[in-house]
Design a protein that fits this description.
Layout lengths: L10 E4 L2 E4 L4 E3 L7 E3 L14 E4 L1 H10 L8 E3 L5 E4 L2 E7 L7 E7 L2 E5 L21 E6 L11 H14 L5 E4 L5 H11 L6 E3 L4 H9 L7 E3 L12 E4 L16 E5 L6 H7 L3 E3 L7 H11 L3 E7 L1 H10 L3 E4 L11
Parallel strand pairs: 3-4, 4-5, 5-6, 10-11, 11-18, 12-15, 12-16, 13-14, 13-15, 16-17, 18-19
Antiparallel strand pairs: 1-2, 2-3, 7-8, 8-9, 9-10
GO molecular function, one term: ligase activity
Keywords: Ligase
Protein name: DNA ligase-associated DEXH box helicase
Amino acid sequence: MTDTLDPRSWLYPTPRGLYCKPGDFYIDPAVAVPRAVITHGHGDHARPGHRKALATPETLAIMRTRFEGMADTSQQPLKYGESVRIGEVDVELAPAGHILGSAQAVLAFKGQRIVVSGDFKRRPDPTCPPFEPIPCDVFITEATFALPVFHHPSDMGEIGKLLRSVATFPERTHLVGVYALGKCQRVIKLLRAAGWDKRIWLHGSLMALCKLYQEQGVDLGDIAHVGDAILETFRGAIVLCPPSALADRWSRRFADPVPAVCSGWMRVRARARQSGAELPLIISDHADWGELCQTLKDVGAPKVWVTHGREEALVHMARSLGIDAEALHLAGREEEGT
């Protein structure tokens, strides 16, 4: 790290979001700004109204799908591995492994490199490129599941639970609550990998983003909108829907439904009960405790800033590894796509 340059002098939190002063841009700002660098398409990171928005082509496609009226002039696509100069800062995007198009923002200024990881996971995911550890001077990490209790089990093991339940209760409909962006498409791919080649039915609110994934080259197999079903009883079927729909009148049309929820929070029994899940499935799009700790070792940064979740526990762990760590207290982050 450059001894004479304090990284806080050129990248720091503000009420609008994380601000890069020599580039005059924000990363994942909480409000519309003149220039933004967006790490991925979830709503707590990608918001409408920016005059200029730099992101991967896939993230910009997601934003166009979610936000009507995005002007072409506001969109600045940057592919993984490419670099662009903004003001005095070189900006590059590297895969984050979180969802389609998700990226780490790699910022270089006066010989110093800061990596803003956004949200990330280390598990294989056929819907997006894997996370790439980037050596840096400062690493900014999320901490959604930064407690030792959070050890995510095998994804295929959790999908196996779902398929065993379907086989055990063939007369019932399995309603699986999934977040629309990332989790839905990943669960579909996991089901396909586990051998489920039957039609997967979808709540209408999931269709647009599934179509986008298919347009981006992610094959989801036989999927269909529940509303298009004719003479379908849905007995023995798997139906994906937003978690909120499990308790909605919409769910009453199905045959003695088995409510399931896919989330890293299903590790917590109280959260599983609160969600109404008869079948909690621990499938997360975020790194668990072990993966967070391993990532700190992999990037080798002498300084770590922690945000979005259990900052204190990860700061303590980082310091025990000899890393200069502190919480970065960013506003506007939510549990979206966990």
